[in-house]
Automatic annotation (TrEMBL):
GO molecular function: carboxypeptidase activity; metal ion binding; metallopeptidase activity; peptidyl-dipeptidase activity
Top-level taxonomy: Eukaryota, Metazoa, Ecdysozoa, Arthropoda, Crustacea
Class of the enzyme per the UniProt entry, highest EC level: hydrolase
Record protein name field: Angiotensin-converting enzyme
CDD domains (alphabetical): M2_ACE
Residues that coordinate or bind Zn(2+) 2: H378, H382, E406
Cofactor dependency: Zn(2+)
Known EC number: 3.4.-.-
One Pfam family from the record: Peptidase_M2
Family named by the database record: Belongs to the peptidase M2 family.
């Protein structure tokens, strides 16, 4: 995730577009522009330095949660904000008429620089804002729950205990117990601070001239229609999700029959992960052809003695096979890739840019399994982006839009997970048959359970928060509204009664740590567009050739695909994202046709299978 960079990146000014009342001559403008550029260059350098200090204190806190480190983190963050505010004030007072600048790039830099972010808050409020955010992250990362039928063991943490039980246990009572423990112990504690936090966050948004935090977040898409665009994208993908939902419901009913009623909803504790964010955790129950090859190579990784380090090295090898940039020395020295035993850490995987062009790190409590192997690629995708745009001005060191950043590693992972690639790197036995229809359907199901099944979840988290931020949902409906959206879009329901004592969205890392989530919705769409384009570039996909379907493409070792990707990444946010998208895919929009095309054989299979099962897609 990229919160850290977004958080520390230059956050200058709010959008007071002061238009000079005096007409300016060409020469004064040009003169002014030269001065403005010099000013920006100097601020860039200073901000990068301050950003490093704040990032380092934040890293130390995230990798060793204790009171001393928290205080240092809060101090460093405040320090950075003060600096950013002064820098922004200077910029606004010195260059009042920047909106008249002729040079489009300079104007873009100024426009971006006029958003100061939370640093716009008065100091007292900012201190409270930072404290609440830091505390909620701590609560989320350090909450412990009690084991099933063993009240003497109340030391289970989210990572790895809760996640492991929710994925591996098939005991409905145990799943219900752990689900309830986690939701009550984590979510309830976050409810009050979150309410206070929302007020401050909205205040900051308004100081930046946005109506509320939702509008502030969405500014990064530089579009007035982005919400409608997301709605429309979701509509085009909902039929595929509903087929998967129906199939999963039928299969899960075999296992947990008495948990299902006629409403068609799936109880949220049966989906293989505590957040009910996707369905890949129950792949083994849903595999279409169990007698054929399973594409979950976890056992093989363990048998071959994979370690977290080896997973990172293998991932890097995929990146460099495309001619992309290897991880720098500092990365290998400073990253944290295994959960330490002697201290509390924020386990949620993150990739860090320390703003100095040298120091880039990943923090991940890596376990040896395929899911984490894919997450390693996801995180390395962030680092690759950081490396590609490291020479851009500080203000441009961001994804073209937030979804781009989340899509890079996932795009590569679509190749990595193909049976043909797994065979090539020895994770599937050479004797395994992979070219048959049944294996392809097994493979597509595995990918769909992660990607397609997570779409409604990714769609509603921010739909929910936008409503909280804009006040259309007040504190009397904070939890019930969440479940309303869960039911409506995801077709899931809580396994036990919920009330307004609870705050179930607060159990999600991105809510507790205030990271927007539509980035992942966008990324799921974008990565298939990237995949389609890079696969064509690599000569591995041809829409006219049925022997080269999109899902079977691997771009491994394609320098042509690598250089196309690198060129797009190196632009950072220096151009509006549709331009970057165009250069990478030929399209100027986020478009669901690639994902639909990729899953077409599975969608056809599901329609037939659900009809055979008498399972009608949809719910009450
Ligand atoms: O948060 C993440 C990454 C860090 S950017 C591990 N992801 C989302 C999640 O875990 O909820 C990746 C997929 C969705
Ligand atoms: Zn990410």
């Amino acid at each position: 995730m990229r919160k850290l960079l977004l958080y520390f990146i230059i956050t200058l000014g709010y959008s007071v577009h002061i238009i000079s009342t005096l007409p300016q001559t060409q020469s004064t403008l040009e003169n002014e522009e030269v001065k403005a550029l010099a000013f920006l260059e100097e601020e860039d350098r200073l901000l990068a330095e301050k950003c490093f200090q704040a990032a380092e204190a934040n890293w130390n806190y995230n990798t060793n949660i204790n009171d001393v480190n928290q205080e240092k983190q809060l101090n460093a963050s405040l320090e950075y904000s003060k600096f950013a505010k002064i820098s922004w004030q200077n910029l606004n007072s010195k260059f009042k008429s920047w909106s008249n600048f002729k040079d489009p790039d300079l104007k873009r830099r100024f426009k971006k620089s006029t958003v100061l972010g939370s640093s716009a808050l008065p100091e007292e409020d900012l201190v409270q804002y930072n404290q609440l955010e830091s505390d909620m992250t701590k609560t989320h990362s350090t909450t412990k729950v009690c084991a099933f039928l063993d009240s003497t063991n109340c030391n289970l943490s989210l990572d790895p205990d809760v996640k492991k039980i929710m994925k591996e246990s098939r005991d409905e009572h145990e799943l219900r117990h752990i689900w309830t423990e986690w939701h009550n112990k984590c979510g309830n504690r976050i409810r009050n601070p979150y309410q206070q936090f929302v007020k401050l966050s909205n205040q900051a948004a308004r100081l930046n001239n946005f109506s509320d935090t939702g509008a502030y977040w969405l500014r990064e898409y530089e579009s007035d229609t982005i919400k409608e665009d997301f709605d429309q994208l979701y509509e085009t993908l909902a039929p595929l999700y509903k087929q998967i939902h129906a199939y999963a419901r039928a299969k899960l009913r075999y296992v947990y029959g008495d948990q299902f009623s006629s409403d068609g909803l799936i109880p949220a504790h049966l989906l293989g992960n505590v957040f009910a964010s996707s369905l890949d955790g129950v792949y083994s129950l849903l595999i279409p052809y169990p007698q054929r090859a399973s594409v979950d190579v976890t056992n093989e990784m363990k048998a071959q003695g994979y370690t977290p380090l080896k997973m990172f090295q293998k991932s890097e090898e995929f990146f460099t096979s495309l001619g992309l940039i290897p991880m720098p020395q500092e990365f290998w020295k400073e990253s944290l890739i295994v959960k330490p035993k002697d201290r509390e850490v924020v386990c949620h995987a993150t990739a860090w840019d320390f703003c100095n062009g040298k120091d880039f790190r990943i923090k991940q409590c890596t376990e040896v399994n395929m899911r984490d192997f894919i997450t390693v690629h996801h995180e390395m995708g962030h680092i690759q982006y950081y490396l590609q745009y490291k020479d851009q001005p500080h203000i441009y060191r961001e994804g073209a839009n937030p979804g781009f950043h989340e899509a890079v590693g996932d795009t590569l992972a679509l190749s990595v997970q193909t049976p043909k690639h797994l065979k090539e790197v020895g994770l599937l036995d050479q004797a395994t048959q992979i070219d048959d229809y049944e294996t392809s359907i097994n493979f597509l199901m595995a990918i769909a359970l992660k990607k397609v099944a997570s779409l409604p979840f990714a769609y509603i988290i921010d739909k929910y928060r936008w409503a909280i931020f804009d006040g259309s949902v007040d504190s009397s409906r904070m939890n019930s509204h969440w479940w309303k959206l869960r039911k409506e879009y995801q077709g899931v329901k809580p396994p036990v009664e919920r009330s307004e004592e609870n705050f179930d969205p607060g159990t999600i890392y991105h809510v507790a740590s205030h990271v927007d989530y539509s980035r992942y919705f966008a990324a799921t769409i974008i990565q298939f567009q990237f995949h389609r384009s890079l696969c064509k570039e690599a000569g591995q996909y041809d829409p006219q050739d049925p022997s080269k379907p999109l899902y079977n493409c691997s771009i491994y070792r394609s320098k042509a695909a690598g250089s196309k990707l690198a060129a797009g990444l190196a632009m950072g946010a220096s151009r509006p994202w549709p331009d970057v998208m165009k250069s990478m895919t030929g399209q100027e929009i986020m478009d669901g046709s690639a994902i639909r095309e990729y899953f077409k054989p599975l969608e056809e299979w599901l329609a037939i299978k659900n009809a055979q099962l008498g399972e009608v897609p949809g719910w009450d």
